[in-house]
Design a protein that fits this description.
Distance between the termini of chain A: 34 Å
Structural class of chain A: mainly alpha
Order of helices and strands of chain A: HHHHHHHHHH
Radius of gyration of chain B: 24 Å
Number of domains of chain A: 1
Strand order of the largest sheet of chain B: 7-8-9-3-10-11
Radius of gyration of chain A: 20 Å
Largest interface: A-B, 25 and 38 residues
Number of domains of chain B: 2
CATH class of chain A: Mainly Alpha
Oligomer: heterodimer
Helix content of chain A: over 70%
Number of helices of chain A: 10
CATH superfamily of chain A: MetI-like
CATH architecture of chain A: Orthogonal Bundle
Number of strands of chain A: 0
CATH topology of the largest domain in chain B: Rossmann fold
Strand content of chain B: 25-35%
Distance between the termini of chain B: 35 Å
Structural class of chain B: alpha+beta
């Protein structure tokens, strides 16, 4: 059904997006919790920095990644010593996708955390639950719809990442040529309009599926909480 | 026994409260909204930290002291019932009730937890709700679950923060009945925050008045209500007194009940649905008491009790004078016109007759102090029962359990 080229682009895209979301879930939840529950000096600045990838041109993000994680970059030169090379690799593409998707994920999680009544956490503490138990038995289950939404949004964003990826990881077939990059390549090639349209359809189907899945999961979590059968 | 001195500055509001709460009975914190009652409760529970001060429970320092200790809320073992039920929406009623229970490590402990849960559920009448989710409960049901959840965590003391807020009359009465019953049956002290005089009348043994962040007076509720100098603060209690009495007999022909006040004195009122021998708390409003120098004849007032005037407060600019009478060794407030006061020549130490209309006293003014007949016998729900041979051992294990990091979900 899918051509080898299409399959390659699709599976690479899914791999990159899954790794990007998987790696940002914990730091994303931590950042969301920190912003939702703590007051500290410079909170507005941290908030602004976190949102930067959302408003910057993706190429700028890609360039900044290159400066930071390139072979001679601030962090890149240290990573190179332990043989970790990020630019022009699929891991680099995952990093670019993660950075671009991070603000969306944090935002969704933070909103759901802010909607939780702190009184419930206080009640749990008076019942003898230590902070870790409160986190795992009260805060996280109640924030679950937001965590799922955040994860799905980030996944969709990572799948569609283009600008930062092409700048930081380039367009290498089989290594960093994800679905959007493959589509771009086909559009640039004369006589490939049909193949481009097919790839375009695949992108639409994947995006729709992930949106529906997130909606279904969030609904299930909500219904369970209201005591009805999902 | 709990004793504390807590100081906290919140913007322009200064909280500086000192109080000793005895190891048994219900102590009420009474004061208008914004007087600092809830803040005091949160400071005791460890949900907020005082600027300075100390808090000791049964000799253990929870806040302050030499090393400026602050024991976090989850290690205090104080049960708190908040203004809202605060049930966890993602756990069933059973899951909520079990949340604070000590973790069962052995089959014996599991058995013990199971029976404690069963007792509590029976006591609160929530047997049929166990598998429901909190979203499906009525206001009154949710409060009862919240009270049960707090008690099942084996608290050393129960803190109730206006637990009846937002309930309608019938639900309120019902829950008040449960709380009054708990208060008589559990062996831990209860601190009850309220600004509702009816609630306090029904359950409180002691009263602490809170005004503008300070505790201005505290003592037995009967004494407090009959103290004339506290009238500005207890004013919203309709001026009156609380007496303890005992049901002596019923007259079915005339539908009357005779209550004994001690020292051979008794009064009659409309028939009560309580058996003979029941000890009750009786509220007498100051305005329902009239004064006569001799027992009058040809009057509809049939309760004429010998009394001695203890105090008179008569101020210019007021029509009425406040009296404190001694009746059968109990202090009773009465209110008469100043003019009458002068014409009858009332003065401290004078013996008079206190006339009380039997019609003025109604059922809600009489609260039972003993367990109800329909009560299910309760085996100390909140304290380890002495009957269990390994009570001491399990108690130690359970005291530690809530502190374990990352304990498993309480839901079964």
């Amino acid at each position: 059904m899918l051509s080898a080229l299409e399959w390659e682009a699709l599976s690479l895209s899914l791999k990159v997006a899954c790794v990007a979301v998987g790696l940002s879930l914990i730091p994303g939840f931590a950042a969301a919790w920190w912003l939702a529950r703590r007051e500290f000096r410079g909170k507005a600045l941290v908030d602004g920095l976190l949102h930067l990838p959302l408003v910057l041109p993706p190429v700028v993000v890609g360039y900044l990644l290159l400066v930071t994680f390139g072979r001679n970059g601030v962090i890149g030169q240290w990573l190179a010593r332990v043989d970790i090379v990020l630019p022009f690799t699929w891991q680099g593409a995952a990093l670019a996708a993660a950075v671009m998707a991070f603000p969306l994920m944090v935002r969704a999680m933070r909103l759901s955390l802010e909607a939780i009544d702190p009184g419930l956490e206080a009640a749990a503490r008076t019942l003898g639950a230590n902070p870790l138990r409160v986190l795992f038995t009260v805060t996280m289950p109640l924030a679950l719809p937001g965590i799922l939404t955040g994860g799905m949004l980030a996944f969709a964003r990572a799948l569609s990442e283009f600008g930062a990826t092409i700048t930081f990881a380039a367009n290498i077939p089989g290594e960093t040529r994800t679905l959007p990059l493959a589509l771009y390549t086909l559009i640039q090639t004369p006589g490939q309009e049909g193949a481009a349209a097919r790839l375009c359809a695949i992108a639409v189907v994947i995006a729709m599926l992930s949106l529906l899945a997130s909606e279904w999961l969030a609904r299930r979590a909500r219904l369970r909480m209201e005591g009805r059968d999902a | 026994m709990l004793d504390f001195h807590l100081h906290r500055q919140q913007g322009a509001f200064t909280l500086d409260a000192t109080l000793k709460v005895p190891a048994r009975g219900v102590t009420a914190l009474f004061g208008r909204s914004g007087s600092g009652k809830t803040t005091i409760l949160r400071l005791i529970a460890g949900l907020e930290r005082p600027d300075h001060g100390h808090l000791r429970l049964d000799g253990e320092c929870l806040t302050g002291g030499e090393n400026d200790i602050f024991v976090p809320a989850h290690r205090r073992r104080l049960g708190v019932v908040f203004q809202e039920p605060r049930l966890f929406p993602h756990y069933s009623v059973r899951g909520n009730l079990r949340y604070g229970m000590p973790r069962a490590l052995t089959p014996a402990q599991r058995q013990q937890n199971q029976s404690r849960l069963h007792e509590m559920v029976t006591l609160l009448g929530i047997e049929d709700l166990l598998s429901r989710m909190p979203g499906q409960l009525s206001g009154g049901e949710a409060r009862r679950v919240a009270i049960g959840r707090a008690l099942l965590s084996r608290p050393r003391m129960l803190l109730l923060d206006e637990p009846l807020t937002g309930l309608d009359g019938a639900r309120k009465q019902e829950l008040l009945h449960y709380i009054a019953r708990l208060a008589r049956e559990i062996e831990i002290p209860i601190l009850f925050v309220s600004h509702d005089t009816r609630e306090l009348f029904a359950v409180a043994d002691r009263l602490a008045l809170v005004d503008n962040g300070r505790i201005t007076a505290s003592g037995e509720i009967g004494d407090m209500l009959s103290r004339l100098d506290l009238a500005p603060q207890t004013g919203r209690f309709e001026a009156g007194s609380l007496l303890t009495a005992e049901v002596l007999s019923h007259d079915d022909d005339w539908q009357l009940t005779r209550l004994g006040l001690g020292a051979g004195l008794s009064l009659k009122l409309a028939r009560l649905a309580m058996p003979v021998g029941r000890r009750v708390r009786l509220r007498l409003r100051a305005r329902d008491i009239s004064i006569a120098l001799e027992t009058p004849t040809h009057t509809s007032l049939r309760n004429a009790l010998p009394a001695v005037i203890h105090e008179i407060e008569s101020e210019r600019g007021h029509a009425s004078a406040e009296l404190v009478l001694g009746i059968a060794g109990q202090r009773v407030r009465a209110r008469v016109d100043r003019l009458v006061c002068q014409e009858l020549g009332l003065k401290v130490g004078l013996g008079v007759k206190a006339l009380i209309s039997s019609v003025a006293l109604s059922g809600p003014d009489v609260i039972s102090l003993d367990a109800m007949d329909d009560d299910i016998p309760m085996v100390n729900a909140a304290q380890p029962s002495a009957a269990q041979p390994n009570a001491t051992q399990t108690d130690t294990a359970q005291a530690k359990a809530p502190n374990d990091a990352g304990s498993a979900s309480p839901a079964s």
